[in-house]
Amino acid sequence: MTTRPDSEGRLATLLSYDCWNLLETAHIARVAWVGAEGAAVVPVNYTVVAGAVWFRTTGDSTFAREASGQRVVVEVDQIDPATRAGWSVVVVGTAELVESRDVPDMLIGLEVWPNGTRSLFVRVDVHEVSGRRLYGVDGS
Amino acid sequence: MTTRPDSEGRLATLLSYDCWNLLETAHIARVAWVGAEGAAVVPVNYTVVAGAVWFRTTGDSTFAREASGQRVVVEVDQIDPATRAGWSVVVVGTAELVESRDVPDMLIGLEVWPNGTRSLFVRVDVHEVSGRRLYGVDGS
User: Regarding the domain with residue range B3-134, which homologous superfamily does it belong to in the CATH classification?
Assistant: First the structure.
């Protein structure tokens, strides 16, 4: 019989400070918006600069067509199946398309793992950030 | 100088057969729907039974209140930051709330890592499944 710490499976609300720190440790976010057919979701490589979430897209993407100027939700999580410990953060904001000539220098190097030219940057101006930590099987 | 295989960063469309097989290998999905305030996303523990995606929720959750009978999107991905290889699958379907007494026996054991009683099951009847594989730095 294994010990089951009291904390196992506990969900704790994260402070926004911790949410931002965790967002800086991950590489992949899922961006959701309300599209022509309802909810839509895509995974993206993202980064955080000066309190905004940034990612890249193409000028002809569904996202660029549907989500520009709109409310979007950005979800990031890291949960280890072995320990069942982890966290998730959800950001709500407004998506603004930005031409690459107009982005801060530090963003030019934002890496996108799939091939292809993504001439547009998307800046999500954040309205809300929330997150939860899940405590795992060994108290982790 | 490292070798960069031609496949690095290539995105390939997955067959639906492969999408279903990959869905059976993961534990966490992100479910998106159109809520009262726009797009909403939550991470869930899920499983696949007989061509439907199942997860659990509470009777008083925002999801139960807003998404019952509605179109939802379920996103699952696994991407290794070290190799930059991985895959993502997106399922579009209709969410039906099911009381626990009415679910197939094999679902009673559907594990949910966070604590708490989730008396409702959600069955997503799938309309569309699509996915992409991302080839990584070593041809993986």
Answer: Electron Transport, Fmn-binding Protein; Chain A (2.30.110.10)
